[in-house]
């Protein structure tokens, strides 16, 4: 008699495949360390020891908190500006037509250029990192929001206007559902860019945070500590994504009622 089939939820399968990807990355890292030597890539053990040292000496906590503040504050400020201008541009044609080339130009400007300008405008410190994150994130959210609003069902919008549905109801029932499929990937991209840009700006501006730790380790030619700071920054990004975006993705996926995957015992 055949054993009964077991079912794995898509969320669990995604977690397992994600863990497999990280294990593959760790294996490639260790191979690179063995092939090229510690002056090119430190081993996992050396990097792990550096991570433990940074955590136990109390250096990691304040640095991670500073980077989180720079990344999330800039992401929220730039994301909010891009979102509201994207909604306005999607609903009002002249606003969208005027704003799109401006945000396209902003999107094409290298973040390093914004870091240099921010240093001239704000001086060294956290303000430069926060500003650079905001100006980098805003175009991502603007373009996604603009496309999402423009993709709404025009017939339903005309019907709602014909029956004089309140403006707030039209926005929540017609515009927001059309935005969800565009915004969730855009916010995930913006969050990842926020951490990368914040760390880069911290390295160049001398601000506190993970970037400041990387700059110090670089000046000491301490490659394991440099890699340890990178690992800590990635861990903070994964944690932020799991806490802030994973619930939204699960809620969105739950509306589609994906079928569980069957695995024979």
TrEMBL record:
Keywords: Cell membrane, Membrane, Transmembrane, Transmembrane helix, Transport. The chain crosses the membrane at residues 71-93, 100-122, 128-149, 174-195, 227-246. InterPro entries: MetI-like, MetI-like_sf. It is a multi-pass membrane protein. The keyword Nucleus does not apply. It is found in: Cell membrane. Residues 64-249 form the ABC transmembrane type-1 domain. The keyword Chloroplast does not apply. It holds the Pfam family BPD_transp_1. Belongs to the binding-protein-dependent transport system permease family. PANTHER family: ABC TRANSPORTER PERMEASE PROTEIN MJ0413-RELATED (PTHR30151:SF0), ALKANE SULFONATE ABC TRANSPORTER-RELATED, MEMBRANE SUBUNIT (PTHR30151). This is ABC transporter permease subunit. It comes from Xanthobacter aminoxidans.
């Amino acid at each position: 008699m055949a054993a009964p089939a077991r079912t794995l939820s898509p969320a669990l399968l995604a977690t397992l495949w994600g863990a497999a990807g990280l294990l593959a990355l760790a294996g490639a890292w260790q191979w690179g360390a063995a092939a090229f030597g510690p002056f090119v890539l430190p081993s996992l053990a050396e990097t792990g020891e550096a991570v433990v040292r940074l955590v136990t000496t109390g250096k990691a906590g304040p640095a991670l908190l500073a980077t989180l503040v720079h990344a999330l504050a800039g992401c929220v400020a730039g994301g909010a500006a891009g979102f509201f201008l994207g909604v306005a541009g999607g609903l009002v044609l002249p606003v969208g037509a005027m704003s799109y080339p401006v945000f396209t130009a902003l999107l094409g400007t290298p973040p390093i250029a914004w870091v240099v300008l921010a240093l001239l405008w704000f001086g060294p410190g956290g303000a430069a990192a926060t500003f650079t994150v905001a100006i980098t994130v805003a175009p991502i959210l603007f373009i996604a929001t603009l496309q999402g609003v423009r993709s709404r069902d025009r017939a339903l919008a005309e019907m709602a206007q014909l029956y004089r549905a309140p403006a707030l109801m039209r926005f929540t029932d017609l515009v927001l559902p059309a935005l969800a499929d565009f915004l969730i990937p855009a916010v995930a991209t913006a969050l990842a860019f926020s951490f990368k840009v914040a760390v880069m700006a911290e390295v160049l501006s001398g601000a506190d945070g993970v970037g400041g730790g990387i700059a110090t380790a670089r000046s000491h030619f301490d490659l394991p500590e440099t890699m340890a700071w990178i690992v800590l920054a990635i861990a903070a990004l994964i944690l932020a994504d799991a806490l802030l975006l994973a619930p939204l993705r699960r809620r969105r996926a739950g509306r589609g009622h994906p079928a569980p995957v069957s695995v024979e015992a």
